[in-house]
From TrEMBL:
Keywords: Aspartyl esterase, Glycoprotein, Hydrolase, Signal. Pathway: Glycan metabolism; pectin degradation; 2-dehydro-3-deoxy-D-gluconate from pectin: step 1/5. Acts in the modification of cell walls via demethylesterification of cell wall pectin. GO terms for molecular function: pectinesterase activity. PANTHER family: ACYL-COA THIOESTER HYDROLASE YBHC-RELATED (PTHR31321), PECTINESTERASE (PTHR31321:SF134). It catalyses: [(1->4)-alpha-D-galacturonosyl methyl ester](n) + n H2O = [(1->4)-alpha-D-galacturonosyl](n) + n methanol + n H(+). The lineage of its organism: Eukaryota, Viridiplantae, Streptophyta, Embryophyta, Tracheophyta. InterPro entries: Pectin_lyas_fold, Pectin_lyase_fold/virulence, Pectinesterase_cat. One of its GO terms (biological process) is pectin catabolic process. This is pectinesterase. Its EC number is 3.1.1.11.
Amino acid sequence: MLLLPLQLLLIFLSVVSHGASVDGANASIAVTYVVDLNGSGQYKTIQEAINAVPDNNDKWYQILVKRGLYREKVKIPPAKPFILLEGEGSQSTIIEWSDYATNGLFELGESHAIPNFNTETSATFTVQADNFVAKYITFKNGYNLGGQKQPMTQAVAAVVNGDMASFYNCGFVGVQDTLFDGNGRHYYRDCYIEGAMDFIFGFAKTVFERCHLHSTAGDWGGGYLTAQGRGSDSDTGGYVFKYCIVTGTGPTYLGRAWGSHARVVFYKSQFNVSIAPVGWDAWNEKDTVNTLFFTEQDCFGQGSDKSHRVSWERTLSGIDVSLFAGDFNEGRLWIIQQP
């Protein structure tokens, strides 16, 4: 059927008004809220602005967060999709809290600890909704930062559990379990991620591109960049680090297996840190190392010497390189439709 110009215009306006993309174009913003600690915006806290977004909305809501240190725990529940959270710079807009998991800490004399806090509930920031974007903002868990040297335990800066979540020029700062990259398809670009122990962990299908990973493992006698939890061969999850840089202190393992089919790929990344010579740790999967998928491809820098790596580290085939260096998390299908 031949469409008249007026019909074409109506179809175009209908698509744009619902936040979808046209011919690969980014979605438009329907509503903008401004958050400012000093009161110049509609809200003084980030959580207030999130609460104001209608449940089950299908349009993109932009929450502009002015520079400042926002001392609050922030949570985006599943019913709040299509949120763009944007700061004024990762060094200028910071969300910080200092909760931590308390399992076993009472035995160590931590009488001030909050009972029943676990890994996930310790998070400063949590997003459970689908279709989320963050830009120019830092998420920080202050527990054990600044030389405090309290007992090591989980203290999460951010939990990312929604599908189709992307982060640009963001910071994630903590010590243990900094970034819980939980479930769904995720994309991190030009982000800074700091920690010592398992500081990127979870089950998601994620690409980290041109990110800066900074290890503080030397302050704790050693540590791990990743703890990926893929549990079966049919599980589509895994972490791919493309064109990243790793700095800091070691010895630092590239990762340890949190699941029987854990999958982590470093591709054309620079290791400017003391990587543990063996590179990887099977952890609780020592009897099933043949199902683990840990590998480095075309990496360089002082920590890139693979001559003493574990014997079960994978070697990528041409097909593998095409998959992991390409569109591993189907990002071209959903990232271009985000604002």
